[in-house]
Amino acid sequence: MLKLTAKNYKSADADTRSRRTWPKYKTQLLNIACQNAKAFDANRVGSMKELWLEFVDTGVPDTLENWETFYTNRWGVTGLAEAGSKLKEMVDKMELGDIDLDMCNDYIKEVVFNKTHFGMGGESTAIIVTAEHFNLPYRFSNAIEESQGIDGFIGEYPVQVKPADSNYKAHVRNHADVDKTLVIRYEKKKQVCFVENPEFIGD
Question: At a CB cut-off of 8 Å and minimum separation 6, what does 192 contact?
Fold first, then answer.
């Protein structure tokens, strides 16, 4: 395993702040309600992967503020409001208690802006610093490649990137095939990533 540390993350942004202070367990309940309501349908709020790649292509620093400005200018806010309303309808159906429309709207923005920024930013930065380590070119995946579990390419090698703690979560696609992809796990807040199978490069 290869560990790349903060010295490799010269321009990385570790902004992880939330939009509000969330009452205990509320985000877990809102997450379930969102899934049931299909609030984050791409036709409504856009494809986060594709929009993020467009954002990266602008070359501006990947700060939370820049991402929010880009998204709003590119996609608008109508879909966010619709997603908030869909979420509130499901919250009421599920009888989840004192979750009002403002909290639903904030949760939609938390996911689209804050969580996307943190997740995608960590993913793209991990690819960049790993490519720099191996002195190879890189590119991020398109939508078709993403659907196949490929997050990008370093040289000719397909890459899959996951948060460092994903081994401890029950997500089906977290168990990457190290024989078919270069696997990187990242901790953006700590500015570190782990290349699980560096020998894959050059095999």
Answer: 3, 4, 5, 6, 9, 164, 186
